[in-house]
Amino acid sequence: MIESPHRVMISYSHEGIEESIVGIWDPTECERTAAWDMYVELITRIPVAYVRPGEGSLRIGLSSLYKLFDASREILRQYGPSVARPRDEGQLSFGYLSIKVLDLVLRPFMLKWHPLLADYESTRARTESPPEHEKKWERYSDLDLAMKEVREALMQYARLLALASEVPELIEKGD
User: Fold this and answer.
1) Which of 15, 65, 112, 161 could be bridged to 35 by S-S, CB 3.0 to 4.6 A?
2) Which helix (H) or strand (E) holds 14?
3) Which of 12, 10, 5 is nearest to 32 (CA)?
4) What pLDDT score does 10 carry?
5) Is the separation of the CB atoms in 76 and 98 below 8 Å?
6) Looking at residue 109, what is its pLDDT?
7) How far is CA 47 from each of CA 27, 38, 142, 149, 171, rounded to the nearest angstrom?
8) Mean pLDDT of successive 10-residue segments in the chain (175 residues)?
């Protein structure tokens, strides 16, 4: 949720743990451009773009989210250290926000679910399609719910990036 153009509140709650990124961000022109690049990367990811219930695949969703680590690193390298420096005491920067979203939202989610899904996938018979096998997993609905929780946090981040980029939200909100 964005309370004003410069006030940041991104929260993520999973398994009883609440994480938040809170502060003030007054982006520079360089940060606005970096925010646009990250916004495009973020809203074009399958788990963030609205997918109707029953469509898609957990594996494709996890793989798409994993690619955000590479995209974030590339954008941070491209724009350099200036996007990581706050201008005033206590103020957030694009670099800080990018790393915090990875560390507080994506990293714990991926560390938990990637190995669990990979272990289950290794039990698939050659005659069964990956999507059929995936839907039979006893943890399917747990991962699906966790993916929705991640989506909500990433949507908060996407709204902030759209605001910083001075563009309207370009993504369907879904359920």
Assistant:
1) 161
2) strand 7-14
3) 5
4) 86
5) yes
6) 95
7) 27, 15, 15, 10, 12
8) 60 82 90 96 84 77 94 97 86 94 95 96 94 94 92 92 89 62
CA atoms lying within 13 Å on the CB side of residue 22: 5
At 174 the pLDDT is 57
pTM: predicted TM-score of the whole model, two decimal places = 0.88
CB-based contacts of 10-16 (< 8 A; 24+ apart in sequence) = 10/97, 10/100, 10/101, 10/153, 10/156, 10/157, 10/160, 11/153, 11/156, 12/104, 12/105, 12/149, 12/150, 12/152, 12/153, 13/149, 14/108, 14/109, 14/146, 14/149, 14/150
